[in-house]
Amino acid sequence: MTTKLPPTTAGIARDFNRSNTLEIAFVAALTDIGYAPIDAAARASRWLAEEARGELAPWWVENRKTGNGTFLSTAAQTISIARLASEVFMADDPGDGVLVSDDDPGDGPADDIKPASRMGVIHIAGIVEAIDALFNKPRE
To answer: What is the top-level taxon of the source organism (predicted)?
Structure first.
C-alpha cells in the first residue's frame, strides 16, 4: 500500500483512514476485473492522487485482453460508448476498415473487426461514494 497505515500491536485493531480504505477498494475492484495485485496497486495509487486533486473520472472501462482503457465521465457515456469502445477503440483486433466518423454517420467499424472479448468496467465514483458514506456515518 502507498497510503500510510497507523501503527498497531498484536491484539489491537488498526483504524484505517479514508485514503487507506479507498486504496484497498480500488485494488479490490481492479483485481476483480483481472489485474495482478501489484499492477492493481500501481493504478490504485495513481487513482488516489487524481482523487485527491479532484481529477478522477467516475468510470473506468478497459479491454482486459489488450489492456487498452479509458476514463469516462457519465453513466450515459459509459453505456453509449461501451459498444463503440468494444468494437473499435478497444477492439481485440481493429481490422482494416474505417472508424466511426462524426462527419459521416454511415461510417462504421470494419467488417473484419474482432470486438473486445473481455471488458472491465469500474464505477469509481460509486466506490468513492460508498467509502465516504462509511466515514461520514457515526461510529457505534
So the answer is: Bacteria
- Angle between helix 124-136 and helix 18-32 axes, rounded to 10 deg: 150
The phi and psi torsions of 125 (rounded to 5 degrees) equal -60, -35
Using an 8 Å Cβ cutoff, are 64 and 34 in contact?
yes
Note the helical H segments in 75-122: 75-84
Q: Per-residue confidence at 111, pLDDT binned at 50, 70, 90?
A: low
Residue labelled with grid coordinates 479507498: 22
Is 115 in contact with 139 (CB distance < 8 Å)? no
pTM recorded for the entire structure: 0.69
Task: Single out the residue of 117, 112, 68 nearest to residue 94, CA to CA.
Answer: 112
Task: Pull the grid cell for residue 9.
Answer: 500491536
Three-class SS state of 89: helix
The pLDDT assigned to 103 comes to 47
Helix extents (H) in the chain: 18-32, 37-52, 75-84, 124-136
